[in-house]
Fold this sequence. Notes:
The complex is a heterotrimer.
Chain A: E1 7-8, H1 13-20, E2 28-31, E3 37-39, E4 44-46, E5 52-55, E6 62-68, E7 73-76, E8 80-84
Antiparallel strand pairs in A: 1-4, 2-3, 2-8, 4-5, 5-6, 6-7
Chain B: E1 30-31, E2 52-57, E3 63-66, H1 67-71, E4 76-83, E5 88-99, H2 100-104, E6 115-120, E7 125-129, E8 139-144, E9 147-148, E10 158-160, E11 173-179
Parallel strand pairs in B: 1-5, 2-11
Antiparallel strand pairs in B: 2-3, 4-5, 5-8, 6-7, 6-11, 8-9, 8-10
Chain C: E1 7-19, E2 22-28, E3 40-46, E4 52-58, E5 68-74, H1 82-87, E6 94-101, E7 115-120, H2 124-136, E8 143-149, H3 158-167, E9 171-177, H4 194-202, E10 209-214, H5 216-228, E11 236-240
Parallel strand pairs in C: 7-8, 7-10, 8-9, 10-11
Antiparallel strand pairs in C: 1-2, 1-6, 2-5, 3-4, 3-6
Amino acid sequence: MDDPLMLDANAVAGDLAEMFGFDVSGSVHRCTNCGNQGAVATLLAYVHGPGTVLRCCICHEIVMRWVRTPARIYLDARGAAYMEMGLS
Amino acid sequence: MTERFTSRGFFGKRRDAGTDRADRIPPGQYLTDGFPVLSAGPTPQIPLETWEFTIDGLVAEPMRWSWEQFQSLPSRDWTVDISCVTKWTKLDTRWHGVSVDDLLAAVEIDPRAGFLTAQSYGGYTTNLPLTDVVNNQAFVAWQYDGAPLEPPHGGPARLVVPHLYFWKSAKWVRGLRLMEKDQPGFWESLGYHIRGDPWREERYSGD
Amino acid sequence: MPEPLAWQIATVTGVRPESAEVKSFTLALPAWRPHRAGQHYDVRLTAEDGYQAQRSYSIGSPPSQTGEVEVTIERIPDGEVSPYFHDVLRVGDQVEVRGPIGGYFVWEPALGGPLLLVAGGSGVVPLMAMLRERSAAGDDTPTALLYSSRTLDDVIYREEIDALAVAKDGVGAFQTLTRSQPPDWTGYARRIDREMLSEVLASIGPQPLAYICGPTLLVEAAANGLVELGVPPARVRTERFGPTT
């Protein structure tokens, strides 16, 4: 899929770190829709919109999406069946 | 009071409205000449042979149009100002399409239906009160600036509701579902305002 | 858990042209910490009225260069942030940054090889950080760089890349110019394709760790090409720049 608006989620690693408190771009996730497992950084990121949407690089369904308002972040991570993050 | 860092000499791509048009720019918005493409996913590519527009939900009988049938509905030119919640406003945009009034006239709406959900190819949804789409306040457009609406801007056809923030103007629209309750759509369920009036700066829930 | 990220105010200590539309900016960081080659910093500009624009820029300098980072930025004509860097920012100015960030698109000698680096345009920046780190560490992992530019004037780090070709310390430098080539050009003269990738792969061995960075369309084509040539998808890492502004 060669949509020129698409980036890798690596590009939003900073925004993700703001939510999770540390860099999760290398963390493994599992796509709720198709079961694909891979680093969060491999998700396809759509950033030019009212919010950010991360889609599975295999099935293209939404894995995570979020909206930043001046005071809050709203995160929907239902598309990630789990995320695995390392300690230390 | 904490001092906020500012970047010397940074203004951004914003254009000054000039005093003669300043009153057409909603609060917190700036003028743009371009037409930014905002997206939550890949641009759907829908062949016109399979394109359909449906009105269903709280109606006596659903109504469905093919592309050819849709094109033969009464349509007209529209020139409107549009405002995106990401702060750009574009004045005097020109479209061609059919009024939502004429679409709704083709069905018998249940009196309980006070709201609708616009549904798009690709899965996007947005919700609107019926009162915001009737009386020529909304239309479904298939032409922009005199040419067929391009896919990145919502073609083959998109909903346009110019008096609300532009996330309500669903790209790649495929139908309207009449509902009894206001059902938050894609962005409304994630922190954006349920109605989105730019003149009251209703950007986020709680505004 | 690793430390949380915070915005900090960096000072511009150097500006250096790299090519016609590209400049490198050296930023001194009060809270510098070592990055990994391939990582980036987020940059945020704030106007007087609070309007903000934010972008990410890859770090070109190796982590052995302490206290500061170098970011190399292409000026996008109708962009918002890159024209500010090129046209307004001066040595002594300050800019708000956050990082280093990006734990996935990184390489260090411990990750092994062979190493294949594929770049389009300013996508060469994080890959150059990897090459500079490899050199600073005295590492000898067999490495190939395939770098696509429009014309010779658009090639970033030109002298450094030419030096790589001559140094013979295990780095093969392959270049392609897609729009126009000088009369004595001996490199490739077309967009990256499977045949080109196959020839470059032959110089280092079949199962490299591959890093591809650049415009989205180039990255897609190269990634697909490598997988078709038998490189396991898990060993191909990409960083798409998108239609940058």
